[in-house]
Amino acid sequence: MNSHSPIFPESYDQKVFLVAGAAGFVPGSVSEFYLQKGGRVIGLDNFVTGQRANIERLKKYPKFSFIECDIGLGIPDLREQKIDYILNLASPASPVDFYKIPLEIMRVNSQGTTHLLSLARESGARFLEASTSEVYGDPEIHPQKETYLGRVNSLGPRGCYDESKRFAEALTMSFHRHFGVETRIVRIFNTYGPGMRADDGRVIPNFVSQALTGADLTVYGDGRQTRSFCFVSDLVEGIHNVLFSGDPMPFNVGNPDEYTIMDCARFVIEALGSSSRIVHRELPEDDPQRRRPDLTRLEKLCDFRPKVGLREGIERTARYFKDLS
Ligand code: UDP
């Protein structure tokens, strides 16, 4: 614990959370978390990658309301809403999207973030930016600490996401320093779980849906690249602690258990008792070779320990996909 340790409200009944990207998988889970605590949540989304089903799930909570809009183009006038917390969780995040909608990604992270930060400035709300481990690019430092400045290829196919997220961090710090806006930044590492689209394109939804249907699991490259996978409820816990902390500097949030992608494929097949085989596909350009969060800062802040291991997380994700079909 340290001097920035989180201070949580006694009650969330009067608290208003604005969640950008509410139809997405992580923001949908964050929204539900605060609704379950009794808070009011206003969700924004343009459904470029989010799912209407996530909004339908949130609508069963009476204190949830939703406005369909593209925050990259502008946001509705929300100054009357007495917003306490603005969570900027709106951005396509699957590498598949980097090829399909690079300009939308750059717009939401630049213009969209500007619009939300301006609202935070006008309304006095606290602002949280959902940044990403992608700010480290293909890292030379392992595991990645928040002080590592990263190795991003601005010209490659991931540049649209990596650089616009880096820009969003710089924008957040500028609003903080220049206008005194209260800001927080989380750098989210690979996260998975219920609420994801089965066709999202990221590795866990791909492997789980392939294993469930008996299709070949597609390992890109030789599968020796690594990732560290965090179940969504653990991520939400980390975000919650950072939001209520007193520290504007970035926090890594994720799970430090690191797997090669090949081991991950074998693990999914075994955990789901699947008869699928493993095939190899071309490795996408600039695919980071190793990734694992150094969580020391978050651990010192709130004694953070992820609770859900990969087996349980895979099983819960598989149950969710099965229920959808
Ligand atoms: N990957 C894979 N097969 C897939 C999807 C992804 O082998 O069907 C690999 C991908 O090349 C990367 C890792 O899994 O090395 C994680 O990819 P993901 O798209 O989930 O996110 P990233 O961490 O690259 O942003």
Outline the structure in words.
Strand 2 (40-45), helix 2 (52-58) and strand 3 form a beta-alpha-beta unit. The model has no long low-confidence stretch (mean pLDDT 97). A seven-stranded parallel β-sheet has the order 3-2-1-4-5-6-11, sandwiched between helices. It has helices spanning 25-36, 52-58, 95-100, 102-123, 159-179, 203-213, 232-243, 261-271, 296-302, 310-324; strands at 16-20, 40-45, 64-68, 85-88, 126-132, 183-188, 191-192, 217-220, 226-228, 230-231, 251-253, 258-260, 278-281. It is of the alpha/beta class and 325 residues long. Bound molecules: uridine-5'-diphosphate. Residues 95, 190, 202-203, 206, 218-220, 225, 227, 261, 283-284, 287 line the site of uridine-5'-diphosphate.
Keyword list:
single chain; alpha/beta; 17% strand; binds uridine-5'-diphosphate
Q: Based on DSSP secondary structure assignment, what is the total number of beta strands?
A: 13
The computed structural class is: alpha/beta
The helix tally amounts to 10
- Order of H and E elements: EHEHEEHHEHEEHEEEHEEHEHH
State mean pLDDT (0 to 100 scale): 97
Q: What coarse outline follows from CA principal-axis ratios?
A: globular
Low-confidence stretches: none
- Biggest beta-sheet profile: 7 strands, parallel
Helix content: 25-40%
